[in-house]
Amino acid sequence: MIPASFEYARAESVDHAIDLLSGDEHAKILAGGHSLLPLMRLRLARPSMLVDIGRIGDLSYIREDGDEIAIGALTRHHDVANSAVLHGLCPIVAYTAGEIGDPQVRHVGTIGGSVSHCDPASDMPTVLLALGASMVVRGPGGASRTVGAADFFKGLFEPDLASNEVLAEIRVPKAGGRGWSYIKFHRRAQDWALVGVAALNGDRPAVALTNMGETPIRAAAVEKALAGGADPATAAQAAAEGTSPPSDAFASAEYRQELAKVLVRRALQEAMSG
Ligand SMILES: Cc1cc2nc3c(=O)[nH]c(=O)nc-3n(C[C@H](O)[C@H](O)[C@H](O)COP(=O)(O)OP(=O)(O)OC[C@H]3O[C@@H](n4cnc5c(N)ncnc54)[C@H](O)[C@@H]3O)c2cc1C
């Protein structure tokens, strides 16, 4: 289908984008367009204006910053997947970016778009949740706030972003010494995840799930079992607790819940062997 008509404006800077957004509450940011444009073609989204941030060069970077790595929101999945900084200091993020879609998607889609779109089937939000990453959000008047991943993913396609705010940066803790795993179960190579699992070993092992609820979720019962001394196979039996996965043409909710138990066990075993 053809999208409904809309205005188009190219933002020259983050502040310019915020000004444009503040002038029209039905405007939306356009980054890679790989999630927004399909929705517009189906007329599930009808923004009055697209504010294109795709040419703001200083929103695309990956750099060390103290105990964290700062990733500009406009950084393409391809650049995240191939970042030497991330491969050395937070490899689960680089690996997962390489699991998103196909090369064309990875060369155009952005980490900020993936996070802001808040699709529960997306891969990167789950990994950011397991890591305890944070999002730097900029708003009118030079305002800036930092939101933890646990609070940022508020609901189905509902990030903690006002209509005139821009996600500027994603900050991930250095985790180079932690064993890790991201397992994405899909029917065909390059499909979206039926279920995905991110696991990180360490003093407090972390497990988060893709496509098992309206947002990415922590597998809290699994984490609690591990903290109590359970082995991975036993802890993984709790993977479905507190989940509410969708039923669709590809899998029922019950199938996803059984699958989650298997994938959590495998992910934990992989993370703990690394
Ligand atoms: C064929 C195909 C396969 C795919 N497969 C996968 C997959 O396997 N796994 C996966 O996780 N994803 C997949 N995706 C989605 C892909 O990762 C998208 O790139 C991503 O979801 C959105 O990024 P984008 O830059 O294209 O954002 P856009 O489509 O431009 O924007 C998405 C939403 O986020 C908002 N937004 C974007 N940037 C910002 C910002 N900086 N601040 C505030 N709001 C912002 C927009 O207004 C819009 O609402 C696939 C997409 C396609 C087309």
Summed up, the domain count is 3
The overall strand count is 14
User: How would you characterize the largest beta sheet?
Assistant: 5 strands, antiparallel
The portion of residues forming beta strands comes to: 15-25%
Explained architecture:
- With 274 residues, the protein is of the alpha+beta class.
- It has three domains: 7-52, Uridine Diphospho-n-acetylenolpyruvylglucosamine Reductase, domain 2 (2-Layer Sandwich); 60-173, Uridine Diphospho-n-acetylenolpyruvylglucosamine Reductase, domain 3, CATH 3.30.465; 180-273, CO dehydrogenase flavoprotein, C-terminal domain (Enolase-like, domain 1, 2-Layer Sandwich), CATH 3.30.390.50.
- It contains twelve helices and 14 strands.
- It has helices at residues 14-22, 36-41, 77-81, 84-89, 91-97, 103-108, 111-117, 124-131, 149-152, 220-227, 232-236, 253-273, and strands at 7-10, 27-30, 49-52, 62-65, 68-72, 134-138, 144-148, 153-155, 158-159, 166-173, 180-185, 195-200, 206-210, 217-218.
- The strands form four sheets. Strands 4-5-10-6-7 form a five-stranded antiparallel sheet.
- The termini are far apart.
- 45% of the residues are buried.
- The chain binds flavin-adenine dinucleotide.
- Flavin-adenine dinucleotide (FAD) binds at residues 28-36, 73, 100-101, 105, 109-110, 112-114, 116-117, 122-124, 161, 166-167, 192.
